[in-house]
Design brief:
The complex is a heterodimer of chains A (344) and B (446).
Chain A (H helix, E strand, L loop, with lengths): L40 E4 L13 E4 L18 E7 L8 H7 L6 H10 L4 E5 L12 H14 L4 E4 L4 H14 L6 E5 L5 H10 L2 E5 L4 H13 L7 E4 L9 H16 L10 E2 L1 H6 L2 H4 L11 H18 L4 E4 L2 H15 L1
Parallel strand pairs in A: 3-4, 3-10, 4-5, 5-6, 6-7, 7-8, 9-10
Antiparallel strand pairs in A: 1-2
Chain B lengths: L4 H5 L15 H9 L13 H11 L6 E4 L4 E4 L17 E7 L4 H13 L2 E3 L2 E3 L3 E5 L5 H12 L5 E4 L3 H10 L6 E5 L4 H11 L3 E4 L3 H13 L5 E4 L5 H18 L9 E2 L9 H10 L4 E4 L4 H14 L12 E5 L8 E5 L2 H13 L4 E6 L6 H6 L5 H10 L10 E4 L7 H7 L4 E4 L7 H8 L3
Parallel strand pairs in B: 3-6, 3-12, 6-7, 7-8, 8-9, 9-10, 11-12, 14-15, 14-16, 16-17
Antiparallel strand pairs in B: 1-2, 4-5, 13-15
Helix pairs in contact in B: 4-5, 5-6, 6-7, 10-11, 14-15
Chain lengths: 344, 446
């Protein structure tokens, strides 16, 4: 079950340290990895020159070193930050998120504009199962929402379904068609449901996000299955399903490190850029949702909640995330500042 | 890294003189490798071989122990670059910094509050490890008083002063404990070495390059100070990541002894940096001692949890014993719920139900310590296993109804469960534990 052994280094030849003479400083030879592979590059969004209407495109991946170790490889593209918006105001988000987004949440176009103003590199639009009146969401509404969002923001766009197989297929296909040529990132492809989404991505020039439950081999397998349908590898991102801080983060973190090491060792089907969703994961936990009746040792609610998303995201940046989907603009600003410090 | 018999053999005289009691040097080498002989038995082994053999058998990153009044902290002795290769062993110590420029009472109160801070995480108590007391004044008496005020909290300490005499004065106050002395540099290392030796305390060493750091540690080793901690003065995120990675690599991949020590970091010390985010990075990436400038539960709780998570042994997911749990003294009409034995899952559900005051029966299935969704995906949670667990705990004899609440994440099992549990009504609960109280209120009718 185990892939080739990640973490096995390929060092440059061990050069003996120069014998110490009293006035000469010795030079320490840092053992450097010699990787044979690199992360694939993927580009999202299409400008008018490329047949779309985005004001800019986004390229991720391409690394030939472990995260930010630029002394032994190239890091051509820093991780990028997405803000998640929904097709209508959600009913069950943390009160702190309603505070920060306010009225913009009522309209996906407004929300997209606000997300762009808050500094997002990418907008992730997640579709709801139902409309505001409780009726099932349908193709007409989806097309209208996607149109609105594309008009309101020139950022590259991702569209994710509500996460149930049948609805996903029913709703993602119209979104995909409506945005033909815009090079969206469509999701979520899972092993139980990917064919319809992949077929639509192929027909309309989009990329897909493939999600697996925290397992290196399953991640690889799904990439293979999707690619076997004919979708080029440059249009597939991997989503290893990370958990939030305290709720399983270390599982996803280690799966990511293992995937990234395998990629650098030349395992082609693990070389996809990685997408993670710390926003959704960390904002659904009690620490973020509840301010009353919690232990005093938890500290100030708002700062704690934002720290929850920020630290989850910061850790995942270090384990190899290329796209981080967040919900609070303050986390975005803080993690982006860390990334700036890492890339110089 | 332990040497093989053959590697040891290459360092022996290879004369087969038999004076060690073994017939050949190779036989002796094999015994040494199996720790069935002592190197001292060989009268002819060279000094170079002796030191090589010694250094090869000691851990690549020295274990440093600090002690307070009845408290202890061990840092170091790490063996991998990535936790999945084996595990990270010793959690980095988190220290709150206090300066002697503050008034004594606020120093004492600050230390007391931070020392008493304790937060529960899946049944584990997390807290701050100790305090870094810094001499800003340069005045011996003032520093000593500050150390005394902090020492009342009993945690291990880091004593920080540029002047060895001031440091010595502070160390006197906590004689009998084992503080970390900060720090020796190229201008004062000889005097700092004396203080370290007389107080028998570990010594931090600071320098701006790896070469200078290695040079200093070698000098200090020769002067008789073996317990050292490194401060490579890498304050920005990129410098910190690069240098801490390189130090660990040198220690683990090359057994480079001069840098084979834990590293200390000061996440709040770079220009305009976000101390909390930097601390998170450094906890993930190789720090041994983390000195932070402010005490804030909203930062500490998530940082302590992050540390706990990354330092969990990947081979041993925290689990609870499967079985029937009673919450708030349930009676025959109380709700029956089922979940898996992953600690986080169990505590999430238990804490919600208990905290909301609901009496309930909680059946915890054996899912190899996996969460609900992971267990289901891995085939460790299905209707058969739930049915088995229900029969095994004899819940039917304890209740006057036949309703089972299953986790929302496995709603898909309700059909099969209704077939497998004749006469039972399967209720699908919420996906997230935090929504359980509201769910019970709305859905549970007696």
């Amino acid at each position: 079950m185990i892939l080739n052994r990640p973490g096995e280094p390929r060092h440059s030849a061990v050069v003996p340290l120069r014998p110490r003479e009293t006035n000469l400083p010795m030079v320490i030879e840092i053992p450097k990895e010699k990787w044979s592979g690199k992360v694939r590059e993927a580009t999202l969004g299409a400008t008018s020159a490329e047949g779309g209407t985005r004001t800019r495109t986004l390229t991720i991946g391409g690394q030939s070193a472990m995260p930010f170790l630029n002394f032994e490889g190239a890091i051509p593209h820093a991780p990028v930050f997405a803000l998640e918006i929904k097709d209508r105001k959600p009913a069950d988000w943390s009160p702190l998120l309603y505070d920060v987004w306010g009225d913009a949440m009522k309209n996906p176009g407004d929300w997209a504009r606000a997300a762009e103003a808050a500094g997002a590199d990418l907008i992730v639009l997640t579709l709801s199962l139902t409309l505001a009146d409780g009726q099932p969401n349908g193709p007409e509404n989806v097309r209208s929402v996607v149109r609105q969002v594309l008009k309101s923001s020139g950022l590259p766009l991702a569209v994710f379904g509500p996460g149930q197989a049948e609805s996903d297929n029913e709703l993602i296909v119209p979104a995909s068609e409506e945005a033909k040529g815009e090079r969206l990132l469509l999701g979520i492809c899972e092993d139980k449901n990917y064919r319809t989404i992949v077929a639509s991505a192929m027909a309309n020039g989009h990329a897909v996000n493939s999600r697996t439950p925290m397992d290196v081999n399953l991640a690889k397998q799904l990439v293979i299955l999707i690619h076997d349908m004919g979708l080029p590898l440059e249009r597939i991102t991997m989503d290893p399903s990370t958990g939030a801080l305290a709720y399983g983060i270390e599982y996803g973190y280690s799966v990511m490190e293992r995937l990234r090491l395998a990629a650098l060792q030349g395992d082609s089907m693990t070389q996809q850029p990685i997408l993670v969703t710390p926003g959704e994961e960390s904002w659904k936990v009690k620490e973020s949702r509840v301010g009353e009746g919690v232990p005093e040792s938890w500290g100030d609610w708002k700062r704690r909640a934002i720290n929850w998303e920020t630290f989850t995201a910061a850790a995942l940046v270090h384990s190899g995330a290329d796209i981080l989907v967040l919900r609070h603009p303050e986390s975005l600003a803080r993690v982006r500042a860390m990334v700036k410090g890492l890339t110089g | 890294m332990p040497l093989t018999g053959l590697q040891i053999y290459k360092l022996l005289p290879q004369t087969n003189c038999k004076e060690c009691g073994s017939p050949t040097c190779l036989a002796f080498a094999m015994k040494l490798a199996a720790k069935q002989a002592e190197l001292t038995a060989c009268p002819y082994v060279s000094e170079t071989s002796k030191s090589q053999l010694e250094s090869a058998s000691s851990p690549p990153i020295r274990l440093i122990t600090l002690a307070g009044d009845g408290t202890k902290l061990e840092v170091g002795n790490e063996t991998v670059m990535f936790r999945h290769e084996k595990t990270f062993y010793h959690k980095p110590g988190i220290f709150i910094r206090l300066k002697d420029s503050q008034d004594l009472e606020s120093i004492r109160a600050g230390a007391a509050t931070a020392s008493a801070y304790s937060v529960d995480y899946v049944g584990i108590k997390l807290g701050v490890d100790g305090f870094a007391v810094e001499s800003v004044s340069g005045d011996r008496a003032r520093f000593a008083a500050a150390v005394g005020a902090v020492a009342a909290a009993k945690n291990p300490l880091i004593l920080m002063a540029a002047d060895p005499a001031v440091l010595a004065e502070g160390a006197k106050v906590v004689a009998g404990t084992r503080p970390l002395l900060y720090a020796a540099d190229e201008t004062n290392w000889q005097q700092m070495a004396e203080v370290a030796k007389s107080t028998k305390a570990p010594l931090a060493v600071k320098a701006e390059s790896l070469e200078k750091l290695a040079d200093l540690t070698e000098k200090l080793q020769k002067a008789g100070v073996e317990d050292l901690v490194l401060d490579p003065l890498a304050r920005g995120s990129s410098a910190s990541l690069t240098i801490l990675t390189q130090i660990r690599r040198l220690a683990l991949k090359k057994n480079y002894r001069p840098l084979g020590y834990p590293v200390m970091v000061f996440p709040g010390e770079a220009e305009g940096v976000d101390e909390a985010v930097m601390a998170a990075q450094q906890i993930a990436k190789y720090a041994g001692f983390v000195v932070i400038n402010s005490f804030d539960p909203a930062v500490l709780y998530p940082l302590l949890v992050l540390r706990e998570n990354l330092y969990t042994d990947p081979q041993k997911p925290i689990q609870v014993q499967p079985g029937l749990f009673e919450i708030n003294a349930p009676t025959a009409d109380a709700p029956v719920m089922v979940t898996t034995n992953f600690s986080i899952t169990y505590f999430a559900v238990n804490n919600e139900v208990e905290g909301a005051g609901w009496p309930a029966w909680l059946i915890v299935t054996d899912a190899d310590g996996m969460s609900v969704l992971t267990a289901w995906a891995a085939g460790k949670l299905d209707s058969d296993r739930i049915v088995k667990a229900i029969k095994a705990c004899s819940i039917e004899s304890k209740i006057n109804h036949k309703r089972l609440i299953i986790p929302g994440q496995v709603a898909i099992l309700s059909g099969e469960l209704e077939e497998g549990l004749e006469g039972w009504e399967i209720m699908v609960g919420p996906k997230e534990a935090v929504d359980i109280p509201a769910y019970l209120k709305a859905a549970w009718k007696h």
